[in-house]
Q: What sequence folds into this?
């Protein structure tokens, strides 16, 4: 029965996220975020998604390195303690509560956990090996049935990297 | 930090990083048979280069592998993917047609153009992510150089 | 219950984005929200007692989990790392300009 382990893992993720939000030192927050990501990878493995588990582990390591670079560039290692404005707190609590209510109402219409509604994917599962010859059905969906999604993903990746280049370039900027 | 990390880290990185690259290539090539594919394989190859960059220091890594090389890798991957997609129009009539013969299932040479697409996507993802990592590292280097 | 726990994780990230004053904490909140959405999509496709969607030779007819959300999430994760790099690049440029990560001090315009 894998559900018990899934609930334990998601509890660990929630605790890790709370620590990451509320801890004082930024490096500790980054490490807690890595705990959340690694628990997420194990949860993917329990939910029978090995492709995504591999991707999540590797991407998590790279995200950890990038966030540590971002933390170490600044001289502030401690979280900023600002004045807590009552208007901000009130609006935040109101927004979170309204969002939670609507999420709860929306979740009532979903099929129960463990028995998905497979209308389109049933056809992919049955015809995938026959039509594409790929034993990994995720790859057959990714590169044959829904290859336009992958093309759009490649475009987004290219645009994001181009944006990072354009933001970080030093040519043409005045040195102070 | 100018000369990278200590000798132990450098020797271990020199041994480990080719294995990581071979593992990434294996993940890419067997993407249609086992878990994996172009996306995780590309990120694994990028992480091997990231390991080399972090252990040997920025200057040496920048001399060995410039970000223009990574950009060329990314552009080559995107071009492979788009050319394969466009060849579908030439051979059969629509975009992203799997025009190659399917072959026998559960073999390495099978599934039409899916392994070639995986190679293209792996090159694109690996090159792109390593290029943006190198840009982040070098930005910090230039700022430190100006400040001193 | 499982779905609602995913939304609790999302709400933690939303709270972090709305209430924190450090720019890097806001980035971490965005990352937490991204994780929770990925977990939710995979949770929707999970089928009890099924195996991973990879056909093995001579295994007969077995029940697979839903492969469609997995194919969507595998692209979303890679997009997530690229956009994280873009956000971090913007944060570095802001720090270079203002010498602080405090969003209450990043108010005045400097050309």
A:
């Amino acid at each position: 029965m894998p559900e018990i382990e899934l609930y334990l893992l998601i509890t660990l993720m929630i605790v890790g996220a709370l620590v990451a939000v509320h801890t004082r030192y930024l490096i500790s927050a980054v490490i807690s975020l890595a705990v959340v990501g690694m628990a997420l990878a194990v949860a993917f493995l329990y939910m029978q998604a090995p492709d995504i588990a591999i991707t999540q582990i590797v991407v998590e390591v790279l995200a950890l390195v990038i966030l540590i670079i971002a933390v170490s560039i600044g001289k502030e290692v401690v979280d900023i303690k600002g004045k807590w404005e009552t208007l901000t707190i009130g609006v935040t609590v109101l927004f979170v509560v309204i969002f939670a209510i609507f999420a709860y109402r929306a979740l009532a219409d979903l099929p129960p956990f463990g028995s998905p509604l497979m209308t389109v994917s049933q056809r992919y599962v049955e015809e995938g090996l026959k039509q594409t010859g790929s034993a990994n059905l995720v790859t057959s969906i990714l590169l044959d049935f829904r290859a336009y999604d992958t093309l759009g993903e490649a475009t987004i990746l290219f645009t994001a990297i181009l944006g990072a280049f354009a933001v970080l370039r030093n040519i043409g900027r005045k040195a102070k | 930090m100018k000369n990278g990390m200590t000798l132990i880290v450098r020797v271990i990185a020199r041994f480990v990083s080719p294995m990581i690259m071979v593992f990434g290539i294996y993940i890419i090539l067997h993407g249609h048979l086992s878990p994996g594919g172009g996306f995780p394989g590309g990120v694994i190859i990028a992480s091997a280069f990231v390991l080399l960059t972090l252990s040997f220091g920025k200057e040496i890594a920048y001399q060995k592998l410039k970000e223009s090389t990574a950009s060329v890798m990314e552009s080559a991957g995107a071009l492979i993917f788009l050319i394969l997609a466009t060849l579908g129009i030439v051979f059969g009539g629509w975009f992203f047609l799997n025009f190659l013969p399917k072959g026998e299932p559960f073999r390495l040479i099978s599934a039409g153009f899916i392994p070639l697409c995986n190679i293209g996507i792996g090159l694109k993802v690996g090159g792109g992510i390593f290029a943006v990592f190198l840009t982040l590292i070098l930005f910090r280097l230039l700022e430190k150089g100006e400040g001193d | 219950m499982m779905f609602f726990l995913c939304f609790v994780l999302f709400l933690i990230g939303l709270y972090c984005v709305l209430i924190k004053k450090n720019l890097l904490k806001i980035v971490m909140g965005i990352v937490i929200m991204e994780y929770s959405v990925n977990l939710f999509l995979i949770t929707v496709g999970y089928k009890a007692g099924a195996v991973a969607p990879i056909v093995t030779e001579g295994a007969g007819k077995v029940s697979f989990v839903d492969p469609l959300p997995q194919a969507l999430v595998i692209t979303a994760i890679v997009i997530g790392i690229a956009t994280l790099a873009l956000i971090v690049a913007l944060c570095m440029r802001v720090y270079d300009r203002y010498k602080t990560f405090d969003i209450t001090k990043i108010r005045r315009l400097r050309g």
